[in-house]
Amino acid sequence: MADQHQNQKRKTFIRSIINFTQGIAVTLFVFAVTIAMYLTVIYRARVAPLISYAIVFDAGSSHTEMFVYNWPADKSEGLGTTSPVSQYFVCPLATINASDPYKPNDFIKLKAISDFENHLDLLNDYFAPCLNEAVSKIPSNRHKFSPIFLGATAGMRLASLRNTTRANQVFETIREIFLNYPFQFVTARQVSSFILLIKSIINKISI
Known about the structure:
The protein is α/β, with parallel strands linked by helices and about 210 residues long. Helices cover about 45% and strands about 25% of the residues. It has helices at about 1-45, 125-135, 155-160, 165-180, 195-205, and strands spanning about 50-60, 65-70, 85-90, 95-100, 105-110, 145-150, 185-190. It is elongated, with a radius of gyration of 31 Å.
């Protein structure tokens, strides 16, 4: 009887050791998997560079287009010396129909920003669709690092010659619209050509 009791105690002890060992093994396995996942995330974060974005509006005399560019960013949020700049997507701004004050039943087609001299209240409707597309396509964690540039060419030069005050109001309204978005607003101004605008942008984001 005593031997049976001793054997039972021995079996219970052995079973406890086995259960304890299995528990340690499972714990070590879970710990190892957790460490492996953590190291994988860290490795990918280090290997995959951040992507920077820039939003550029080409405001011509007959239409406006929004170009979004991107490139691999370095740790200082700048443009790496060997980073290729790519065109991410393009969004043409749609024509806005406005009531003709002289012909109540007719509409005026507002195609370029210079057409909005007397329709400043419609500029938000003009820019909103493309800006909202930029908000949705650019990752939210890169919004505040993404500058907006607008360069206006011939149309606004003529508008300034006609009425400098109204032309300035167009630019000021556009600036206010851009400031309502989560991006880093930089400038909205007249430029002699779109190429010069792009060059000035590259100079700014290379700093």
